[in-house]
Design a protein that fits this description.
Strand content: over 45%
Distance between the termini: 25 Å
Helix content: under 10%
Number of helices: 1
Number of strands: 9
Number of domains: 1
Order of helices and strands: HEEEEEEEEE
Length: 168
């Protein structure tokens, strides 16, 4: 799964580096519902607003274990690939999240106890989404640096996920 997500992001990397080479996007307004695989792992509800913007809300299990809720506003930078059966769009976004960790947290949290305290923060998702033209399905890969605030202090965090959605 990580290899597929990494391959999708690498395919979009040239477009992220040079957005002036992207084809403008004008998507129809529609909904997408699916799963997030990776960190965080959960459910996603995405609303394509029409044109080149969308929002994405999620409820997910986070590493820890824990739970996290969040939403991102998405700006579609453009279409990197337009083929007969698929389109590959690249995007960037921003959004808040809130959650709680319980249990061991691992090396990313150093000396945070993960005792169930609530944390909050913001993240900046950068990703690529492959839209299938002959099926109402999209597959996306996302890397999202985040700043997390908890009672023990602040830390940088990195989400890496694969999203699979049914479009309707």
């Amino acid at each position: 799964m990580r290899a597929a997500a990494l391959a999708l992001l690498l395919a979009a990397a040239p477009a992220l580096a040079a957005p002036e080479g992207l084809t403008p996007v004008s998507r129809p307004a529609r909904w997408g519902f699916g799963v997030l695989l990776g960190d965080p792992f959960g459910l996603s509800l995405k609303r394509y607003m029409g044109g080149a913007q969308a929002w994405d809300a999620y409820a997910a299990f986070a590493y820890g274990p824990g739970i996290r809720f969040g939403a991102d506003w998405i700006w579609i930078l453009g279409r990197a690939v337009q083929a007969r059966q698929v389109d590959l769009d690249v995007y960037v976004g921003a959004g808040p999240f809130i959650g709680s960790f319980r249990g061991p947290c691992g090396v990313a949290y150093l000396n945070y106890a993960c005792n169930g305290d609530v944390y909050f923060g913001g993240r900046v998702p950068i990703g690529a989404e492959l839209l299938f033209k002959e099926a109402p399905v999209s597959v996306g890969a996302e890397l999202a640096p985040a700043l997390l605030f908890a009672p023990g202090g602040a830390l940088l965090y990195l989400d890496f996920l694969l999203a699979i959605r049914v479009l309707f």
